[in-house]
Amino acid sequence: MSLDVVKKIVKALDDKKARDIEVIKIDELTIVADYFVIATANSNTHVRSLADEVEYQLEQEGIAPDHIEGRATGWVLLEYEGVVVHVFLEESRNYYNLERLWEDAKKIDVSQFLD
Predict the structure, then answer these.
(1) How confident is the model at residue 1 (pLDDT cuts 50, 70, 90)?
(2) 70-78 long-range contacts, Cβ below 8 Å, gap at least 24?
């Protein structure tokens, strides 16, 4: 189920013009989640818009978020069935650099989700 959720999330982010979308498969390294989906937004408004779109698209599929954090900041986190979505402003994404922290994880090519 997680990979289906990842596909829907990536598509929603791409449709709303998120930049630098990455998917990291972390299930072999931690019990926190199966996947991280990381995306960059152009402004605080865009961060909220991307998070809202993900939430809306998944609600249409009957999938409710398990957890949401950061609606008023430059980093929104949404958690869905083993998938954690991180929507960042570029400055915040560079600062926290999740890709470096999880560099041992497998990166998934997102182009397969954008048909």
Answers:
(1) low
(2) 74/44, 74/47, 75/47, 76/47, 76/48, 76/50, 76/51, 78/51, 78/54
